[in-house]
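Q: How would the structure tokens look for this protein?
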Amino acid sequence: MCRTNYNTSQRKNKHLNYEERLMIERWYNRDKKSKKEIAKLLNRSERTIRREIKRGLVMVKDYEWRDIIEYSADLSQDMYDYNIMAKGPNLKIGNDYRLKEYIEKEIKEKKKSPEAIIAEIEHNNLQFKAKITARTIRNNIALGNVFDITEEDLTYKKKKQSKNPKKRISNKIPPEKSIEFRPEKANNRAEYGHWEGDSVVGKRKGRGPVLLTLTERMTREEIIIKVKSKTKESMIKAFNKLERKYGKRFYTKFKTITFDNGSEFNDYKGLEKSCIRKKIRTRVYYAHPYCSGERGSNENNNRLIRRWIPKGTNISEISDEFIKKIEDWINNYPRAIFGYKSTNMILLNI
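A: Here is the predicted structure in token form.
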């Protein structure tokens, strides 16, 4: 079940985790709880919550296409992961000032790289109190908290590859595939057949099967499909199977689908290409990066799925029968937006 009264014992010097950030997102954006209330629920200091919310604020579009500011758990977690990665291990140099001066001299005067310095220390069996790696030297030079050296003093700087797939992938998506070009009937939910899609993973950075989730915008109808892996090839195969299942009905049932910028969905040509006929089978669009509110219906249904399949669950052990049970449960769930009618009740009148 979804935990609305989350509480934990005070943990000193412990950072917020992803689960706590998701709770902050829900309480701050949807439930409109104050920072003080959120701090009390998480047993954290109010200052911690204020700083966390400030770090994760992002501008999104609401259902009436107005700009609003919301807290994004994913954005904040990405920033946290990046900062941790960039920081690297602490330089355990202690009071070994001789090693510090040696490194600074080798870089400034002899123009050696950190890798060459460490290699020479090991090869010549030079003795220092502390032992460090070339990567640690580079990290601390970048942070500027140990050495009297800047990155400009290095003979060359290693280029760091982007760890943010959203920024890389967005360059592969043509402008006309932006959500801004989606049909107005899809935007205002005036017509059945416009969907939002996403993938739900079991282990945050694990491999293996994932869930493809599709949510119809007008009725909130949910379709959940277990796919082999979080790859574009697996997603295309899942849509091929779905097209064969519905046959001619597929083309009226799935008029458009809006995804995020995940790598598993960036092959829009493969997703649109029919495996039965020559014409395309659907139109694919993409939300703006870090704007999960543009796929709000799908995000809300994903939270319902998490009641049954918590984060960290091994999806390979989840049976198709259980997934179907979750799908039926969501489609029969009474919704306040429909006067507490379920999706299946709404579908009877379409």
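The chain is about 40% helix and 10% strand.

Confidence is low (pLDDT under 50) at residues 1-13, 160-170.

Upvote if useful.
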